[in-house]
Amino acid sequence: MFETGKTMLAFDKLNFALQEMHVSLQFYNLLLNNKESDYFLVKFRKIDLSYYSNNIEELHEIHNELIDSEDSSMYGIALAAKARYAVLSAKEKHYLERLFGSIEIWGRYELYLLLNTLDQINIFQVTKTVFWFLSDEKAYDYLRIIPDFRILFMRIVVMSIFRFCKLGKKKMSLMLFMKKRKIFQIAYRQNLILPINFSSNLLKDIGYTLSKIN
Q1: Cα dist. 177→21, 126, 134, 155, 183 in Å?
Q2: The predicted structure's pLDDT at residue 134
Q3: What pLDDT does 147 receive?
Q4: Most exposed: 36, 121, 158, 202, by fewest CB within 10 Å?
Q5: Which of the pair, 80 or 182, is modelled with greater confidence?
Q6: Mean pLDDT of the chain
Q7: Which residue from 73, 83, 70 is spatially nearest to 37, judged by alpha carbons?
Q8: Contact 28, 17 (CB under 8 A)
Q9: pLDDT score recorded for residue 36
């Protein structure tokens, strides 16, 4: 098939059809190869619940259970749990920064990992990654289209805004805030409703925080 050029022709047709539907190849690939393990999602949601209920013991247990795993994915979850209650080591931060810098397609695993650790990794890595998401709307359209991805995407942007606030980087915080407000408004117009904790009240809270930065 490669010799006759039929494979390339089929790909061209597929690519053209996706463009006509305003769907990126990344989004199509995620739909076609959705192999994310439910185990990963269960663990990350457990980390979420433990963190917001201040259950440090549970976070410890998740970390201790997975930290010695030879599976790099399990190791990442262990670091995500640890980052919610303790300071990561320089080696651990470097591992995450290299990982985030090498990701080509961001699945829910990668987004959850970033969400839980972005408060500790290098701020330049955070800036670069978030602005990738915001600036290349075609490549990362699935972050705005698929509900689970959209929620994680919005949470990452919000967490980044607060990180910049804490560092006193008001200009960067305002830039992200305005971008996020635009994304939220588009989602609202398209009936892409977010959970209540990502409503306009959250945007007001962020605006108030920004106003308090000198």
Answers
A1: 29, 15, 12, 12, 10
A2: 83
A3: 75
A4: 36
A5: 80
A6: 77
A7: 73
A8: no
A9: 53
Higher pLDDT, 67 or 213: 67
Residue 187 has pLDDT above 60, yes or no: no
Written as one string, the DSSP assignment of the chain is: -TTTTHHHHHHHHHHHHHHHTT--HHHHHHHHT----HHHHHHHHHHHHHHHTT-HHHHHHHHHHHTT-SSHHHHHHHHHHHHTTSPPPHHHHHHHHHHHHH-SS--HHHHHHHHHHTTTS-HHHHHHHHHHHHH-TTTTTHHHHSHHHHHHHHHHHHHHHHHHHHTT-HHHHHHHHHHHHHHHHHHHHTT-PPPGGGSHHHHHHHHHHHHT--
Is the separation of the CB atoms in 165 and 123 below 8 Å?
no
Residue whose token pair is 């978030």: 130
Measured over the CA atoms of residue 197, residue 200, residue 150 and residue 164, the dihedral's sign is negative
pLDDT score recorded for residue 12: 65
